[in-house]
């Protein structure tokens, strides 16, 4: 019997990988056993968006949390995942994920199904040059 792994993907619509980790509304979390997906769950990312003067600001619940707290809050649903797929992210989130043992993978693959299949097959390419 092999050990199951969990893989997270950031998304806004449940079908495409979000262009930016911090702005995504949801995680889709896959459980993979013996190279096959055995479970798929979509959960909201614990962030709060509000507009002010035409700008969108992203904050965790509670506006005065520092960056470490904000990331800890955002990472909570995926702490037991092996990796997270995104099409873009900032250095702080990348460093924070790595620090908790979750491998951030920045991909150019748009569709979640294609990204998950490539990850499971071991062919998904990470693009760290896309960090912003």
Question: Mind sketching the topology for me?
Answer:
Elements: E1 5-11, E2 26-33, E3 36-44, E4 48-52, E5 55-59, H1 67-75, E6 83-86, H2 91-99, E7 103-106, H3 112-121
Parallel strand pairs: 1-6, 6-7
Antiparallel strand pairs: 1-2, 2-3, 4-5
Helix pairs in contact: 1-2
Q: Any overview of this molecule?
A:
The chain has three helices and seven strands. The protein has helices at residues 67-75, 91-99, 112-121; strands spanning 5-11, 26-33, 36-44, 48-52, 55-59, 83-86, 103-106. The strands form two sheets. A five-stranded mixed sheet has the order 3-2-1-6-7. It has a two-stranded antiparallel ribbon with strand order 4-5. A hairpin with a 2-residue loop joins strand 2 and strand 3 (36-44). The longest helix is centred in the C-terminal third of the chain and has 10 residues, at 112-121.
Features:
single chain, 132 residues, alpha/beta, Nucleotidyltransferase, domain 5, five-stranded mixed sheet, 32% strand
Query: How many E-type strands?
Result: 7
CATH superfamily: Dinitrogenase iron-molybdenum cofactor biosynthesis domain
Using the coordinates above, name the CATH class: Alpha Beta
Mean of the pLDDT scores? 86
Biggest pleated sheet = 5 strands, mixed
CATH architecture: 2-Layer Sandwich
Give the distance, in angstroms, between the N- and C-terminal Cα atoms.
Answer: 40 Å
Question: What pattern of helices and strands is seen along the backbone?
Answer: EEEEEHEHEH
What radius of gyration results from the CA coordinates? Answer: 15 Å
Order of neighbouring strands in the sheet with most strands: 3-2-1-6-7
Range of helix content: 10-25%
Residues in β-strands, percent: 25-35%
Unreliable runs: 48-57, 59-65
Tally of alpha and pi helices: 3
